[in-house]
Design goal:
Layout lengths: L7 H7 L8 E5 L3 H11 L5 E5 L2 H10 L4 E5 L7 H10 L8 E5 L4 H9 L4 E4 L4 H32 L3
Parallel strand pairs: 1-2, 1-3, 3-4, 4-5
Helix pairs in contact: 3-4
């Protein structure tokens, strides 16, 4: 039996980083929205954590930084814009990808999300395919960036002789 050599696409797919076990923090003050996001994302095999408002989100991030945050904009106590800006200002958490999820659909809202440091923006009602695709993609990018930083640090240590 003859086999065909793998194509570059086949190799890329097989070398794609495994996101199983990655941590995603879902932040929304509406319980139904959280349940929907949880149902949509369960197929990814990630650890899914939740917070009901911005203050809880910051507490969760301080306890254990997630690999990605899905963040509602309109919440009591602290808006998603404020939470995003706080997370992005802290060097320890600045690299966490943040996807703003909101019912707001004005261009100025998207601009404000980007200004606060958001990496992506989804409008409600969230499309399952779009959500899962973006979360998977951002988790892979985040994992690859982390691996690159680790490799660069190892190279610097090796070059300095230590």
């Amino acid at each position: 039996m003859q086999t065909t050599p793998p194509t570059p696409t086949d190799r890329a797919a097989s070398e794609s980083p495994d996101i199983t076990g990655r941590s995603v923090l879902l932040v929304d003050d509406n319980e139904q929205n959280l349940e929907l996001l949880l149902a949509y994302l369960e197929e990814l095999g990630c650890e899914l954590r939740t917070a009901n408002d911005g203050i809880e989100a910051l507490e969760e991030v301080a306890k254990q930084a997630p690999d990605l945050i899905l963040l509602d904009v309109m919440m009591p106590r602290m808006s998603g814009f404020q939470v995003c800006a706080k997370i992005k200002k802290d060097p320890a958490t600045a690299d966490i990808p943040i996807v703003m999820v909101t019912a707001l659909n004005e261009v100025s809202d998207a601009e404000r999300a980007v200004e606060s440091g958001a990496d992506d923006f989804l409008t409600k009602p969230v499309n399952k395919l779009e959500l899962v695709t973006r979360v998977r993609s951002l988790l892979k990018v985040s994992l690859l960036q982390r691996q690159l930083k680790k490799t660069m640090a190892e190279l610097r240590r090796a070059q300095s002789g230590g």
